[in-house]
Amino acid sequence: MRVKESFNDKNNKFLGDLFNGMEKGKRETSKQNIITTLNVASTNLGQAIANPKFLAKTFSVALLTFGAYHFTKLGFAMTTAFFMGRFGKPTLVRETSKIYTNNYALIPFIQMRKFYSNYFKKHTEANLLKGVILDQKLEDQLREISYAVLNRKKHYAPAKNMLFYGPPGTGKTLFAKKLAMESGMEYAVMVGSDIAPLGPSAVTEINTLFDWAEKQNNGIVLFIDEADAFLRSRKGGDISEYMRHSINSFLYRTGTPSEKVVLVLATNNPEQLDDAIHDRIDEIVGFKLPTLNERRIMLFHYLVKYCQPPNSPLDKAKFIWKYPRSLIFGKKLIYTEGVTKEIIEGIAEKTEGFSGREITKMVIAWHDAAFTLPDACLTPDLMQKIL
Fold first, then answer.
1. Residue-number span of the structural domain to which 324 is assigned
2. CA atoms within a 13 Å half-sphere pointing along the CA-CB vector of 24
3. Do 253 and 206 form a contact (C-beta atoms < 8 A)?
4. pLDDT at 59 over 80
């Protein structure tokens, strides 16, 4: 046993010495390779330093690489700013006709829509006031305003700023949108009560809004609803410092007539606006509650729109174009029974004090109530019940 153990010890010692020798050889080889690489590199570096042409080429490549990197970075930033300025949407904008998208593949289609709207669609005062039921005096005033907006590019005149006042639901926002769309402009809607919660950042957001508006090539109708919540008189002591700064910033941005931004303020209380705001206004338009005749026309108009199935081939084609899935799923139609001209005129008399929006909602309520019946039929009794 001792002889066998002695043999194993010698064998292990031999193997250990062999492995140590191999590791030492590898380390020596690696060391020689590193020394050789450094010597070759130092030799080449010395030759390169001694060669002016090589130095010039190296410096040129480094400079071009550095310039290309920063140029690409700057170009990307400018492209992003351009697309966000054209297709982005500021925080203060609640609603806009611009298509806000991060998918740049859609941009060519958006531009095609704009091209068609601007060059092939006829923009006239008649188209603009089509479907808007107004008092004759108000309609005449709006027609004059429409002419000025529609022809602003031909006359090379700056845009007019307008103040719309009147009870809620009388068509102020509706007309501002139609004014924009029929004139080939964009529209954007903001609400004055959104300014106060912004605090110290309100001035920045206002400047961002106007910077964005000025970048719209075709111009934009900027509609500010509840303007008195933002632009109220600074004479009172109940206005905060931030709101004062916001109003001052707004006045600064609207002090010079613009060729791209048509400013439309809407308020129920025009007397609460700051005096300097009135100085910015070129046209004042009062929207009143609809008269008896206007209510009667509205009732007939919305009954046909919501409660009468399309009968003529043209109406059916328009309906299918607007709702293509109706070809597959169909549409449950609503019918009227016993609804005469006298019934409508009687309801028109009972709706004194209703706004246009309230009349629209009432007709939609008639439509929904008719669908609760098995045969989806609208009757005078049901209409009176809803009224």
1. 292-386
2. 6
3. yes
4. no
Tokens 């549409």 -> residue: 331
| Residues 108, 245 share a domain | yes
Residue 119 pLDDT grade (very low, low, confident, very high; cuts 50, 70, 90): very low
Residue type, 39: N
Q: How far apart are CA 253 and CA 243, in angstroms?
A: 15
Comparing 327 with 241, which gets the higher pLDDT?
241
Query: Which amino acid does the sequence have at 188?
Result: A
Residue 247 has pLDDT above 50, yes or no: yes
In a domain, 89, yes or no: no
* 173 SS3 class: helix
Domain shared by 265 and 316, yes or no: no
- What average pLDDT does the segment 292-311 reach? 84
Look up the pTM and report it.
0.63
Residue 267, strand partner residues = 165
Q: How many domains does the chain have?
A: 3
Q: Are residues 49 and 112 in the same domain?
A: no
Q: Residue 246 pLDDT more than 80?
A: yes
Q: Residue 245: what pLDDT?
A: 92
Residue 90, in any domain of the structure: no
Strands 261-267 and 220-225: parallel
Interval 23-51 mean pLDDT:
73
Helix (H) / strand (E) element for 225: namely strand 220-225
User: CA 149 to CA 258: how far, in whole Å?
Assistant: 12
**Neighbouring C-beta atoms of residue 167, cutoff 10 Å:** 14
